Amino acid sequence: MTSYNLFFDDLRQMVRGHELLRHRYLQMAERGELSREEIKVWTFQEYFVSLAFPRMMAAVVTRIPDEHEAAKYPLIKNTYEELGADMGLEKSHPNLLRKLIKALGGTQEELTSNRQNSGTRDYLDRLFRICREGTFLEGLGAIGHGNEFLVIYEYGKFVGGMRKSGLLTPENLEFFDVNIQADVDHTRQIEKAMESFIESEENRRMIVRSAREALDARMPFYDDICSQLGL
Asked: What is the mean pLDDT of residues 73-87?
């Protein structure tokens, strides 16, 4: 096994072992114990994240030096796919989330009047700070393993739980399925973009630190949802 593989294996294990994935809300989601209303509250807050994510990636791209254009590629490709790629805006991730909200009984009026919880606001503020003010490697760490790789397991808990409970039909889980499938590929591409930079111990520390900060920042997002729901 190469040193690259060992580094990325350790980084992935850090994500899988983070306390976020043991959060009470996600444990309930995995067991299929959440009601439609309880998941709908999550979708309303996640909607702000979905809308903001392309702007985060764009911010990181602007910090990547021109001579490292290969590091820009996965983020630009990902941004295009977030907005539906060749299939158009009908398949954009925000639109897929709007369809999920509708399937859960949410209305456009509710979505229009929706406001960020303080945990959602703090989460987005911290990620934007990394992406706009940190090094591009810190941005890649926060976007790659602190978000893309995380989603595979985070969203996987919702899918497993809802398939177990039968709360929604398989076609109504498209938002989760599309994101999980895409983020397996996105993680691989971001890791490939990182390879030429991780011989440096300092670079490795930056990537790990920013990924961990992104994971830590996600905790209050779920804490506030639980407070709102009285869980």
From this structure: 74
| CA distances, 157 to each of 1, 115, 121, 180 (Å) | 30, 25, 23, 11
**DSSP states along 20-44:** GGG-HHHHHHHHT---HHHHHHHHH
Helix intervals (H) in the chain: 3-16, 24-31, 36-63, 69-82, 93-103, 108-112, 118-133, 136-143, 149-165, 174-194, 201-229
Contact 28, 212 (CB under 8 A): no
What pLDDT does 79 receive? Answer: 78
- Mean of per-residue pLDDT scores for the chain: 91
Backbone φ and ψ for 114, nearest 5 degrees, come out as -60, 140
State yes or no: pLDDT of 41 exceeds 90.
Answer: yes
Q: How many domains does the chain have?
A: 1
Q: Which range in 84-88, 145-149, 169-173, 195-199 is most confidently predicted, on average pLDDT?
A: 145-149
Tokens of 105: 């009984």
**Residue numbers of the domain that contains 13:** 3-229
pTM for this entry: 0.92
Residue 2 region by backbone torsions, left for phi larger than 0, else alpha for psi between -120 and 50, else beta? beta
CATH number at residue 131: 1.20.910.10
